[in-house]
Amino acid sequence: MPVLWRIAFRNLWEHKAKSLIIGTLIVLGVIVIVIGNAMIDSAKEGLRKSFIDNYTGDVMIHGPSDNVVSIFGLESMDGDIEVPSIPSYETVLAETSARPEVAKVTSMAVAYGSLGLDAPEVTVTEDDDRTGGMSFAILFGVDPASYFKMFSSIQLEQGHYLEPGKPGIMVTRKSLENLGKRYGKTLAPGDKILITGFGSLGMRIREVEIAGLYANKDAPETDQGGPPGMSYVDIDTARVIGGLTLGGGEEIKIEANQKALLDAVDESALFGDDMVDSVKSAPKVDYEKASGLLGDTSKREILNTADTGAWNFILVKLKNSAAVPGFIASISASFDKQGIDARVTNWQGAAGTMGNFADIISVIFTIAILIVAVVAVIIMMNTLVVSVIERTGEIGTMRALGAQRGFVRKMFFAETLTLSLFFGLVGSAIAVALSLILNALSIPAGDSGIVQMLFGGKVLHLVPKAGSFISTVLMIFMVAYLAHLYPVAVALKVQPVRAMQNE
């Protein structure tokens, strides 16, 4: 074996130009793969830490749904748009809290709406995320007593945190400034704003007080508070806006006398060509009967009364994040045994599409690497073909002296392995040096949320892993090995006598 390696080293040294061409390809490949993997790992870790620390915790429990459910609501709007509430909430919460692996637990609900004022608009700013002329908002209805303890990264800038049992809203400074510009007013904590919610039960309007301004500098998006327009409200406001009311699940039936009242007005008369004359000639309405009907507001009150036992999510932080898979399997089995249709997922499932961002980038990067690998195989193969052709006489002489085909194959294998290991280590060293330089430069991600997620934070920070180096060198070796098979096969087909004549 030492003789084989000496021959391999001699051949590589004798053909320095070819060796350097192949080595350069290997070095560049290692640098690209190691830096790329480090960036993807950084993005994954940054996303994981950001969502666990700011939004989802380690585990999320939610109600049954045919659609994919994330912490921000339903991922698709097919059918119902309301996020389901957790069945047997008290039982689920009690069992979750009693688990020894659990460190902290909180509950919340989510709703969608828009923010405005009871005043005419003065101007519209380009920065507004608007729906129907009003600022769109994702409303997190929280339990203040436990939520802000669990997610302590939510920093209060002005005013006060939400208080249990008291209506209020917490918004970012940027959202409040944009709202003030639209109405030509300077808004501050203590002022009132209108929340207009929309859902399957129709539009809901609630006036709440601005409790405080918050910032979250660790969030993976701009606006210092995660997704644009995200606000925290008291749980009852979120329930009413989101349809978690006592009558939210009731089927509203229209009785015969109510239908008769609706039929009392002739539609053709109301919308005919001569509307005024038609309205004058319309059938008389029994207003005493109508007032009596409208006086019964019990069903309306039920539809506008928050269901105090309704929650969309239970968020859990474990003492050890590594225990998440076992915890999910165990508690899911317990719920199934009790006949409780509660779903359990990890932080990535809770984050929804945003949680899969790094995986999507990883797939794209892998496809790109495969394409580059194919190109590298072709280039290396062509280079090796030229090298083998130049050494045809040498190979023929070796075979004439008794070298078997297996010995020739082992010789080229040794050369390939030597090239891969040597230049792979060189490429790894350069990749580490580049990572240190990039980290020292503290390249900012800017205001782009996509770049922030790709960087895994506000600045680029790369930490290449040992596994990445090993897997990269192995992959490079496989590429080089595949590239050398064809040239060697061509050389071995040449008869020794003819090969010696070509010397």
What this model shows, in words?
The structure is a single chain. By secondary structure, this protein is of the alpha+beta class. It has 3 domains: 2-51 and 357-501, no CATH class; 64-245 and 309-341, no CATH class; 256-303, no CATH class. It contains 19 helices and 13 strands. The two termini are 27 Å apart. Residues 127-133, 220-225, 246-252, 275-282 and 287-304 have low confidence and may be disordered.
List the SSEs and their pairings:
Elements: H1 2-14, H2 16-56, E1 59-62, E2 69-70, E3 73-74, H3 89-98, E4 102-116, E5 130-131, E6 134-142, H4 144-150, E7 155-159, E8 169-171, H5 173-183, E9 192-197, E10 204-215, E11 230-234, H6 235-242, H7 256-262, H8 267-270, H9 275-280, H10 287-295, H11 298-303, E12 313-318, H12 324-338, E13 343-346, H13 347-351, H14 357-390, H15 392-400, H16 405-441, H17 449-455, H18 466-493, H19 496-501
Parallel strand pairs: 6-11, 8-10
Antiparallel strand pairs: 1-12, 1-13, 2-3, 4-6, 4-9, 4-12, 5-6, 7-10, 8-11, 9-10
